[in-house]
Amino acid sequence: MSDWDTVTVLKKRAPKASTMKSEQAVNAARRQGVQVDTQLKCRFFPGGAGSNKQHVATKNTAKLDRETEELKHETISLDLGKLIQQGRQGKGMSQKELATKINEKPQVITDYEAGRGIPNNIIIGKIERALGIKLRGKDRGKPLQPPGDKK
Fold it and tell me: What CDD domains does the record point to (predicted)?
């Protein structure tokens, strides 16, 4: 019965990477005194992205720092705002009434009259038709010609 003294292992495979990462394998390695290096990684963002680091300098930071031009939206001119205001007051309308007539919010009319509005030809066209004056082109402030009455 000496066969029991020798043990033959057939096809012993190395543990898979997934089993080495399991919590049981990590705990067993810790018990044996092996140094274990653990890193928390997000599977959706390889490379550690999404780890909630808020103050990390990106490669574009230096490029943004070198940028000297201040970027702003183009706003309408103050004289256009004055034309809208004069036309509205000439018709005896409030800003809210004009806004309701052109299906926009009253804040849009306020911004346009104060020169803070972002130019939108659709809105300017609605205001032109509601007030009956031209707000665009070379003859600004003149009465708007009804459609079909071109000279």
Answer: HTH_XRE (cd00093)
